[in-house]
Design brief:
The protein has helices spanning about 10-20, 35-45, 85-95, 105-115, 125-130, 185-190, 240-250, and strands spanning about 1-5, 30-35, 50-55, 55-60, 60, 75-80, 95-100, 140-145, 150-155, 160-165, 165-170, 175-180, 195-200, 205, 210-215, 220-225, 235. The chain has about 250 residues and is an alpha/beta fold. Strand 8 and strand 9 form a beta hairpin.
Amino acid sequence: MLVVVVEDEDLAADYLIGLLNKQTVVPITEIKHLTSVQEMVSFFSTTQASLIFMDIHLGDGKSLEAFTQTNITAPIVFTTAYDDYAIRVFKHFTIDYLLKPFESQDVITALQKYTQIKENFSFYNTAKSIEALESKTLQERFLVNSGHHLKSIESTDVAFFYSEGKNLFLFTINSENYLYKDTLRDISEKLNTEVFFKVNRNYIIHINAIKKIVKHSPQKIELHLKVAHASTKPILVSKFALKNFKIWLDK
């Protein structure tokens, strides 16, 4: 089977291709790597894949733009670092999504889902998911326990979310912190990605909470926050999120 990886960041593409070459769930005969919307349009105008792993943001635009310019009918696993608002749509209508940074088991799970649905796959649902992207709803208030009281915190007052083990904590711009009954993965689906960004597996940070950005190397960026945070360890932007983090800062 032919698998297409749409990813314009070489490090992320090599990582995913390496995982695909090692897996034993499906027999892959060829992996084609595409890096731009232009390459997608050219390739899919003449060739159809068995399965596509597709990043949303490419250097020349969103990969979704290719759907209006050519006929793509293969099942898709979307990969994303900060388009978290789309995740709740994707998980209902497509095979799966991979939220960067992802692990080998995430790829295995996506391939297992592919084997279960490939015979009855219809692109109609994928098309509906793309149409639904702009109809997203965002969470603006977060209910927490404060002693014997309940408190509703506005999203504008949230500095960051921090995950530790099975617990998720909400930190406010006033350095207050509360246990919040959710997971980092699920809460990322409900936030406005214009102002919130998932920088690594432990932190989703509001743009206004960032005090300083320190570039130690091209692949190592550290964030200093305006409020006290939960760990003494430095907050480093995941290497798989670096490109989209810079895009997010430049919006």
